[in-house]
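input
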Amino acid sequence: MVYLFLKPVIRLALLLFCRRVILVNPSKLKQKGPLLMVANHPNSFLDAIIIAAYTKNPIHFLARGDAFKKIHHRYLLGLLNMLPIYRLKEGKENLYLNEYAFKKSDEILRKGGILLLFIEGISKNTNQIQPFKKGAARIAAAYTGSQPLKLVPIALTYNDFYRYGKTVKLEMGEMVLANQILPYTQEAQNLKYFNQYFYAKIEALIGKPNQQEAEENSWILQNLAVLGRLLHWPLYSLLRAYVAKRTVGTAFYDAVLFGALFFSYPCYLLLIVFILAKFGTSIWMIGLVLILFPVTARLVLLVNRRSSTL
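output
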């Protein structure tokens, strides 16, 4: 329920965070399960947010286990269809918990669901593919459902990882059946073949998205964009500085900034409404201001294409 509610809201939020999300062959994003999506992982949990926002049917994710340490985190992430998967670096004592993740993954697929797995098992702010882990191949090999399991490569490519107003390309490759890329009787051979297959497919899909050149805009749009910068500067400048400090040396800056803006922007608008109401502003004027804020924020992204910062 929470997942279905947040999906359209997140798509709207992405309009204020990304200058453009390029969907290559968007009809492929409507596929049904049982389906295992195998994707690269250049920008931490922002990758999952973008894929989920533009995929028609609900999907489940395997996410790093250390995010599930606290009970309330585990509950909230569960509402968002996330399952914990633990790596050796997160402690040998947690590896046995992966048995639950694999069983749950198989259950989701057997019921005709969609599972997203980031095959690199690590996120680095680069479009260059990192070495693959074996989790995706093991889930595919262990599938026990009666319907054929479909697999599909997904590539996410960013033109920038640190500046506001980025362009992202999301491309889904051709679907393949699990038995076609698990042809051997030996597990080691299957795992190697599986990873080689998806490495080649994902690498072929990756290509840096071209940022559109600056266009001539009317002075009205240009001034509205300037107004948008001024209106949002108090919120954005504070969040950017805070997030940059908290995520230094990690790959989480972009994703954490999106999350911070997603939750704080409604509060920022409510604060503006409260201030206007205190000064006796009419309801229709307050409504106009509530429209003006997101519209000018979007224009900041669209009008000056050569600049990616507020």
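quick obs: The mean pLDDT is 87.
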